[in-house]
Amino acid sequence: MSKIFILIFFGIFYIYPIASFGVEKIKLGLLVPITGNDSKLGKQIIKSTRAALKDINTQNLEIYIKDTNSNPTTTLKSAKEFVEMGVKIVIGPVFYKSLTYLDEVNEITFLSLTNKTFKLPNNAISAGINASSQLNTIKKFIELNDIKKTIFLTPNLDYEDEINRAIKMSKIKIYKKYLYDTEPTKLTAQIEKITNYKIRKQNLEDEIKRVENSDLVDKEKQLNKLKKKYTIGNVKFDSVIIADFDESLKSVITSLLYTDVSPKKKYIITFNQWFDESLLEEKTFQPIYYPSINKENLENFQNKFFSEFNENPNYLSLLSYDLVGLVYYLSLKNDLTNLNSLFRKKNSFKGKIGIFNIKDNKINHKLNFYEVKEGKLIEIF
Questions:
Q1: Most exposed residue of 15, 145, 152, 227, measured as fewest CB within 10 angstroms of its CB?
Q2: Which of 51, 52, 33, 50 is nearest to 42 (CA)?
Q3: Is 169 exposed, middle or buried (0-12, 13-18, 19+ CB in 10 A)?
Q4: Quick check: 195 and 259 in contact, CB under 8 A?
Q5: Residue 13, Cβ neighbours under 10 Å: how many?
Q6: Which pLDDT tens digit goes with each residue over 4-18?
Q7: pTM of the model
């Protein structure tokens, strides 16, 4: 197994195995936040690339690491320094905003860890778990369950264009799309409107009055039954996809419950939650469905990472681990002098994160689909 040395010189990190004479090395750049608020994430990605290099066990791959400080200007400066070093392919940057000026560095192909694919520089590949990959998986679930009317809820944030593009590319059938405000009071009012809550509530009140004023033999029985209801009348959809996460997602589901839309009667589907354990505890939200990477693969990587570094990895560490292996594999099979054309072709690969393919400057992941039900996580496919 090759030994790994780490040198720090003038703020530049080098990770490389002992040289194998006579063999031209592959120079792989790693562009991550080493300083600033996101430095912990950057250091974990560095560790995951070290782990990948160790597992590949080659003397023909050099990894050079430079800082982005999660800042577009710093990222551009570091990228230009990579050009001077002869680096042609770079893993990173991590964040979409750091790609801002990288179209100025045509000599390099960037395998960014962002999951955004809209308006990327031509020399950047999106390697994150993008919306198209997730919607392709959700589409499969919808078709398997013969779901006819699906509404789509998107928070009024900065990724509406990304979502709309993914909907178009996946060709998933959406009955209606809605933007909602993440401020709780406004959100509840919007969900009331989407679900026709006030009309359904009024329907119940009218029916109670009708029965009260009737001469029905079983009037008391019917009244008792009605008073256990919250609304009368159905909503005009079979399932709802919520493009949200964490507490904001929970606020949307809470508003749906308030308007008498039960996950036991309508499918509540959301985006990749990375196996958020807090969802297992929210029994009133269940069942809830979402796409994600293979959980077993993730757990194996987490155990391996913890064993080696005594800390739990961020999910982006798994992405960067796979990308090191991808670059090395491509270097064995192809001429890396024209990487952009290579990444425009459709190629399929299998990594720790699962099966993925490269097409049109983005990496699409073949995801699994999970159900959270009765406090348990169940793999559907």
A1: 227
A2: 33
A3: middle
A4: yes
A5: 17
A6: 333 332 233 333 333
A7: 0.88
* Closest by CA position to 362, among listed 344, 374, 380, 349: 344
Measured distance CA(269)–CA(95) in Å, rounded? 26
Write the CA distances from 296 to 5, 146, 275, integer angstroms. Answer: 32, 28, 11
267-270/176-180 β-pairing: unpaired
Per the DSSP assignment, residues forming a β-bridge with 155 are 180
Over residues 167-186, the pLDDT tens digits come to 999 999 999 999 999 999 99
Q: Which of 138, 162, 121, 111 is nearest to 349 (CA)?
A: 111
The one-letter amino acid code at 315 reads Y
What pLDDT is recorded for position 374?
96
Amino acid identity, residue 88? K
**Looking at domain 4-129+295-344, does it have CATH number 3.40.50.2300?**
yes
Residue 323 identity (one-letter amino acid): L
The pair of structure tokens assigned to 179 is: 């933007």
Helix locations, 36-158, DSSP H: 39-56, 72-85, 131-144
pLDDT at 1: 38
Block residue for tokens 């493009």: 243
DSSP category for residue 98: G
- Quote the CA–CA distance of 154 and 169 in Å, as a whole number: 17
Angle between helices 39-56 and 315-333 (to 10 degrees): 40
The predicted structure's pLDDT at residue 22: 46
Please determine, for residue 2, whether its predicted confidence score (pLDDT) is greater than 70: no
The structure tokens listed for 125 are 């590949």
- pLDDT above 70: residue 216: yes
**What are the residue ranges spanned by the domains of the chain?**
4-129+295-344, 131-293+369-379
Of all residues in the chain, the percent with pLDDT exceeding 90 is: 80
Assign domain 131-293+369-379 to its CATH architecture. Answer: 3-Layer(aba) Sandwich (3.40)
State residue 343's pLDDT score. Answer: 64
